[in-house]
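Sample entry (194 residues):
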Amino acid sequence: MKQKIDARGWDCPRPIIETKKLLDTMRAGTVITTVDNNLAVSNLIGFSESMGYEVFCTEKQNGEFEIEVTKEFSTYDDNTPARGGLVIQISSDTYGSESEGLGENLMKAYIYALTEAESLPKTLMFINQGVFLTVEGSPVLDSLKTLEAEGVEILSCGACLNFFGFEDALEVGGVTNMYAMVSKMNDAANAIKI
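Predicted structure, serialized as C-alpha cells:
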C-alpha cells in the first residue's frame, strides 16, 4: 500500500510528524512525502534511517523532492522504546549569563570536562545559538570531535543552522530536527538543558 503527503511549504518538523503519523497507522507500507526544501529532505531521510525504514529520495522539477519511506512488517516496535543514557541539550554558545567573556570560557571548560568525565552522555543536542559550537571556527571543535570519537552522538538543529546561515559550515556531528530532539529527550533515562 502506498500513500502520499504533499508537505510543500511546511515548516520543520511537520513533514516528519505527518509522515510518522501515517506510517504508524500501517503494519507495512510506503509513504511518499513531497517536500520543497533540503532541510525537510535531510530530516526525513535521517528520521527514516533511525527508525530502520527503507528510504529513497527522488529530485523532481522546481526544487521539489519525493521521499519514499517504506515500512516493512516488524522493522520497529513503537510500543517498546529503549530508554537510557543522558541527553544534554545546549542552547547557547556561552555557559550562564554573559560577563565579559566569562560565559565563553565556562562553556569551553564544560565541554572539555565532558571529555574527561568517567561517564559520557549518550547524546549532545545543539539548538539556537548552541549550534555556534558545532560549526567552523568554534573553540570547542576538538573536544566535540573527541566526544564523537568516544561514541557520543552530536546533533545540531537543522532549522537553527539555516537561520544563522550555517547550512554548509557544520564541522562535527549530524543535523537533526525538533521532532527527533523531543523523541530523544523523552526516551532518555535523564535529560538536562545547558
